[in-house]
Amino acid sequence: MSFQVFGLPVSRGVAIGRAVLVASSRVDIAHYFIDESRIAEEVDRLRRARNTVADELSALQRDLPADAPHELSALLDVHLMLLHDETLTGATRHWIEERHYNAEWALSAQLEVLARQFDEMEDEYLRERKADLEQVVERLLRALAHGNGAAPPVGSHVGARDFAGEDPLVLIANDIAPADMLQFKQSVFTGFVTDVGGRTSHTAIVARSLDIPAVVGAREASRIIRQDDWVVIDGDAGVVIVDPSPLLLEEYRFRQRQSELERERLARLRHTPAVTLDGERIELLANIELPGDTLAAVEAGAVGVGLFRTEFLFMNREGELPGEDEQFEAYADVIKGMQGLPVTIRTVDIGADKPLDRMSVGELRHEHALNPALGLRAIRWSLSEPNMFRQQLRAILRAAALGPVRLLIPMLCHLGEIRSTLDAIARAKQQLVDAGRAFGDVEIGAMIEVPAAALVIDMFLDHFDFVSIGTNDLIQYTLAIDRADEAVSHLYDPWHPAVQTLVARTIERARARGKGVSVCGEMAGDPTFTQTLLSMGLRSFSMHPNQIATVKQQILRADTRRSTTGRPAADAQLH
Question: Which of 197, 199, 201, 202 minimizes the C-alpha distance to 221?
Fold first, then answer.
């Protein structure tokens, strides 16, 4: 029976496919696909984990004191029975062998299936056994985590198309961690649906960067959609249709074909210079996350990289941070990939919605923050880890000897932070001189993403060569809105007069001082803002490569002499 789930539309278009669920778990696990050659190894990991847990439970039962309540021994019997039940471990092997899930993902997927069966049982006693099942699975997940066989490094995973046949796949989850998004990025999911998130949550941003339809904040989607359900994701309306009728399915397939034709038409603009009707040349740069993204940037016609988010080099590493040489190689690959075009490298922006997963490396371990968006993140985190920070700075400076590089510092706010950052850069240069290592000159820029920075923009322009406006965080902090919280995401408003004033003032002051200024947040890649930003004086936009053609189309139709500062009429009616 067909039904609909409603959420927030965050990436346009239509996706149709079978549901692949990533179940939430109290134990932090990795989700990735495995190659055919690793199936036997992964099944063996599962078998060893089961044997480990069986030994643990048997030891607990054997060591029970003589006066222990009988119920304790009976409970351990139940756990042992569940552990060896074919509907748990046998069915988990199915997810590994047929879907090529890693063992942890396979276990969580089967837990989701069995948990629903327990919920539907009429007998209260049997329903309550679901908690026992969850405890057994968590023991298995911990055993897997402490055993061998960690997640493969980024780029080594395989796509679901390798085993999924002809059926397209869509991803359904409570939320998708940035580390998991790295694993899924090169896979074949045609759309995303998450229970939580807002229009500028990390999942939404990545979905737009992948140019695939997505709906976030869909509340109970991951609980009511089942594995392998046929799903339509309407990224324009924010609607998810489960088990659609043949007539509805055909209508959405027609819309898919229309979207593909529009993409092909826009692709023809790749080599067209971005010049407005009144002759203003506009710089269209690319935001990238991994060195391999440079190919898409060049193919999209970007004239450089306006934002390389280096934090993604630090993720999915089980707490082991990349060393200086490894970082240097990654930055060098980006510079070579851009074929002489300028590259802006942002220092690591860890924290908030991009934590370092499973961090346990000595001095880098920090307690969980009550409000990570306002805590130790970005430059604050880097300055608290001076050895790590100088290591990254040295790698960037060394890479700058290979081509034009600009260094961008995130989330600066105080004059003391500015001075400490510039001092760290000077120290890194001196260390390279002392070591006899070659390095290049870099322009140094600051992200303007805290209202305080925008209000004292002239102080920043005294110390930096250029500024880049990070509109995602600037809007979040200006309006006191957690952009990843669907409960308040409707209040996240890029058109708010306070936001527009801060953006316009930053652009105006930078131009007046002869300093470079760009926008690298989501606003830059949204064509509804193109004319407004042009009228403010912006001449440098940085966005995901998939957004360049659409924005270029708006630029070719724009006249910078025309003043446009209010929200579009159609959009205003929604507010």
Answer: 197
Closest CA to 20 of 201, 189, 215: 189
In the block, tokens 């971005």 appear at 274
Domain 3-24+159-260: top CATH class:
alpha beta
Most distant CA pair in the chain, distance: 90
Question: Residue 309 and residue 182: Cα distance in Å, rounded?
Answer: 13
Q: Are 198 and 216 in contact (CB under 8 A)?
A: yes
Block residue for tokens 């510092």: 409
Q: What pLDDT does 538 receive?
A: 97
Residue for token pair 């995130």: 410
Q: How many helices (H) and strands (E) does the chain have?
A: 21, 16
| 503 close to 536: Cβ distance less than 8 angstroms | yes
- Domain 36-146 coded CATH 3.20.20.70: no
| H or E element in which residue 345 lies | strand 343-346
Among 157, 413, 520, 544, the one annotated catalytic: 520
Active site residue 413: no
Tell me phi and psi for residue 305, to 5 degrees: -105, 120
**Tens of pLDDT along 195-222?**
888 777 767 777 777 778 999 989 889 8
CATH number, domain 274-573: 3.20.20.60
Place of tokens 């004319």: 531
Catalytic residue selected from 157, 202, 413, 544: 202
| pLDDT given for residue 568 in this prediction | 61
Q: What is the pLDDT of residues 515-529, one digit of tens each?
A: 999 999 889 999 999
Provide the b/e sequence for 222-233 (b: ≥16 CB within 10 Å): bbebebeebbbb
pTM of the model as a whole: 0.72
- Residue 375's pLDDT band (boundaries 50, 70, 90)? confident
Q: List all residues 6 or more positions away from 184 whose beta carbon is below 8 Å from its beta carbon.
A: 31, 171, 176
State yes or no: is 202 an active-site residue. yes
What is the structure's pLDDT at 165?
53
Between CA 347 and CA 357 the distance in angstroms is 18
Do 274-573 and 3-24+159-260 have the same topology in CATH? no
Domain coordinates in residue numbering, the chain: 3-24+159-260, 36-146, 274-573
Tens of pLDDT, residue by residue over 549-564, are 999 999 999 999 876 6
